[in-house]
Amino acid sequence: MPRTARWRIERSPSRSLPPSDSSRPLRITDCRFVAGASRSTDYPRGGLPEVAFLGRSNVGKSSLLNALVGRRLARVSGTPGRTQQAHFYIVNEGLLLVDLPGYGYARAPARVRSELASIIEAYLEAPRPLALAVLIVDARHDPTELDLGMNAWIRSRDLPVQVVSTKMDKLSRQQRRHSLNATQRLMQRDNIIPFSSETGEGKRELWQAIDSQIGLRSRTPASPTGGAPR
After folding, report:
1. Sequence-ordered list of residues with C-beta below 8 angstroms from that of 111, at least 6 positions apart, any chain
2. Which phi-psi region, left, alpha or beta, contains residue 8 (left: φ > 0; alpha: ψ -120 to 50)?
3. What percent of the chain has pLDDT over 90?
4. Average pLDDT over the chain, rounded to whole?
5. Which residues of 174-192 are buried (b: 16+ CB within 10 A; e: fewer)?
6. Are 159 and 128 in contact (CB under 8 A)?
7. Predicted confidence (pLDDT) at residue 61 exceeds the cutoff of 70
8. Residue ranges of domains in the chain
9. Is the domain covering 31-218 a CATH 3.40.50.300 domain?
């Protein structure tokens, strides 16, 4: 049985993110690829806070990452399942963004799906300085069983998580309301961030959620995204 079945577990309460300060500036001066790894022994060392991005294949994860940093970091492909490693990008020499493989590509052989699931689970279970897991869902559809399973799996590990609903620009106002309400209800979360890689909607709010978690975790004078001292 593919390891993805382990993500289908009972839901349990999880801790919520603290409120973010909308007045905090975001300054990204440098970001670049530093490593691709399929095993924990190949992960970057150094202890920098990490933000992991997860989602189904072809959900728009690469486009979201590129929009978030304002440049092309991750390769955008029309072929689902192209990312087959954990890709690490360093931001301002103080934060690692981790692009995890997409899950749920039905056309991939069972062996490949199992290997990709193993890479995701190995990262999330490793003793990493994970500040936030960003779970990306497609606003055009209700969250799938795999999305709900991943959400529950992350909750079971008590990991801080932010759900982002992307491709919002494809929806009408009425469809947006329905999509957000359905995602909140099915994922049992009330802090969904609507996002569009095309218009930039949600970019600031997502950085605020990241910045808030980094400050909460590290207690450093300033966060790598340029936030004010705490």
Report:
1. none
2. beta
3. 44
4. 79
5. eebeebbeebeeebebeeb
6. no
7. yes
8. 31-218
9. yes
Reduced 3-state DSSP string for the chain: CCHHHHHCCCCCCCCCCCCCCCCCCCCCCCEEEEEEECCHHHCCCCCCCEEEEEEECCCCHHHHHHHHHCCCCCCCCCCCCCCCCEEEEEECCCEEEEECCCECCCCCCHHHHHHHHHHHHHHHHCCCCEEEEEEEEECCCCCCHHHHHHHHHHHHCCCCEEEEEECHHHCCHHHHHHHHHHHHHHHCCCCCEECCCCCCCCHHHHHHHHHHHHHHHHCCCCCCCCCCCC
pLDDT digits (tens, 9 = 90+) for 151-172: 998 988 899 999 999 999 999 9
Q: Which two tokens stand for residue 37?
A: 């790894």
* Whether the Cβ atoms of residue 100 and residue 43 lie closer than 8 Å to each other: no
pTM of the entire predicted model: 0.79
| Side-chain-facing half-sphere of 189: CA atoms under 13 Å | 25
Record the tokens describing residue 42, joined without a space.
């190949």
Spell out the residues 6+ positions from residue 14 whose beta carbon is closer than 8 angstroms to its own. 154, 155, 158, 161
Strand 95-99: give its sheet, edge to edge. 31-37, 86-91, 95-99, 50-55, 130-138, 161-166, 193-194
| Amino acid in position 100 | L
